[in-house]
Amino acid sequence: MSRLKIVVGLSGGVDSSVAALRLQQQGYPVSGLFMKNWIDFADESECTAIQDSQDAQAITHLLGIPFYEANFSTEYWNQVFEHFLDEYRRGHTPNPDILCNREIKFKVFLNYALALGYDLIATGHYARIEHSKERYHLLKGQDKNKDQSYFLYTLNQKQLSHTLFPLGDLKKPEVRHIAATAQFPNYNKKDSTGICFIGERRFKEFLSRYLPAQPGDILTPEGEFIGKHDGLMYYTLGQRQGLGIGGRKNSSGNPWFVVGKNLMQNALYVAEDNPHYWLRSQTLQANQLHWIAGKSPAFPYRCAAKIRYRQADQACTLTEITHDSIQVTFDLTQYAATPGQAIVFYQNDECLGGGTIITTNALGLLL
């Protein structure tokens, strides 16, 4: 039996449960830890968190392993949620899952586990870690439909050296089959979605609790007034649903899409044709760069990139602007590259790192 002690971050879902099972089967001394990172007793998600904790405890009972529950809600508020709100105030569309991984799962949780005397942490992420040439490499998960390396690009060498991803070589149906065979009660539990650690909810209602809404005009790119929006923070570039625009005279009858935002004028721009040229861009700038190897490549640098989760790899060239900002020039035109979102870089299956999109050459972002 391995002497390395591992604590698995159990969410109550099937992925982390099977991660714990696989490690136990491999001979590791395993424990499970449930993180409670959001407390709002007036919130409908509170009962979901209680159920998730109970599901996590049930798995540790079945496996006969120790169970911990830790409250990181203060750290989550200060290091994740405040940033989340700040980005919306700036008119950006943030990705809290990436910040949550960086600040909570692989910092607060990791430090907590090390302080308890554990050697490694493990999670149910679909990604792989390899060690070669004296450094750790983050690789895509074998299940291309579930690969989560996009959300893990901020990990560094120390964090990777203390982390295991037991599901990296599996596909989701295999994970559910393993859970069903082990008679886990959560083998068919729905995958969690929504805001990291906050979960599914009526997003507009939830966000309005923390940020005052500022209704404004909905305009076409030609400047025609066609309605009122509820607040720019509720809309994302390329969004189709929830615009509240009904049938209009002289309209083509096609769906309307968000094609631009003007923070100064508090105006939301929409158009019927998709993809609208305001959302097309071939270059963008990114900052807040992080390289998993610990240093940047030599520029100019050819690689592939994703500007959203599950997007196919897009060939591009990176050129340096400053020590913490680059220009990304894609071989093909991109659609709805959005400030505040992550751009993540790859060489084949290896995740190299990434950054935050700040500007693009799309007209809708320059208003």
UniProtKB/TrEMBL annotation:
A Pfam cross-reference name: tRNA_Me_trans
Ligand binding (ATP): G9, L10, S11, G12, G13, V14, D15, S16, M35, G124
Annotated region (Interaction with target base in tRNA), positions in chain: 95-97
Domain of life where this protein originates: Bacteria
Protein's UniProt keywords contain Transferase: yes
Active-site annotation: C100 (nucleophile), C196 (cysteine persulfide intermediate)
Annotated signal sequence range: none
The protein's enzyme class: transferase
Residue ranges occupied by any tRNA-specific 2-thiouridylase MnmA-like central domain in the UniProt entry: 204-271
Catalytic activity: S-sulfanyl-L-cysteinyl-[protein] + uridine(34) in tRNA + AH2 + ATP = 2-thiouridine(34) in tRNA + L-cysteinyl-[protein] + A + AMP + diphosphate + H(+)
Record-level Gene Ontology MF annotations: ATP binding; methyltransferase activity; tRNA binding; tRNA-uridine 2-sulfurtransferase activity
InterPro entries (alphabetical): MnmA-like, MnmA-like_C, MnmA-like_central, MnmA-like_central_sf, Rossmann-like_a/b/a_fold
Location within or outside the cell: Cytoplasm
GO CC entries: cytoplasm
Primary location class: cytoplasm
Alphabetized UniProt keyword annotations: ATP-binding, Cytoplasm, Disulfide bond, Methyltransferase, Nucleotide-binding, RNA-binding, Transferase, tRNA processing, tRNA-binding
Region listing for Interaction with tRNA, in residue ranges: 146-148, 308-309
Gene3D superfamilies (alphabetical): Adenine nucleotide alpha hydrolases-like domains (2.30.30.280), HUPs (3.40.50.620), Translation factors (2.40.30.10)
Domain tRNA-specific 2-thiouridylase MnmA-like C-terminal: 281-357
Interaction with tRNA (site feature) positions: H125, Q341
EC number(s) on file: 2.8.1.13
One GO-annotated biological process of the protein: tRNA wobble position uridine thiolation
Family: Belongs to the MnmA/TRMU family.
Function (record text): Catalyzes the 2-thiolation of uridine at the wobble position (U34) of tRNA, leading to the formation of s(2)U34.
Name used for this protein in its record: tRNA-specific 2-thiouridylase MnmA
Taxonomic path: Bacteria, Pseudomonadati, Pseudomonadota, Gammaproteobacteria, Chromatiales
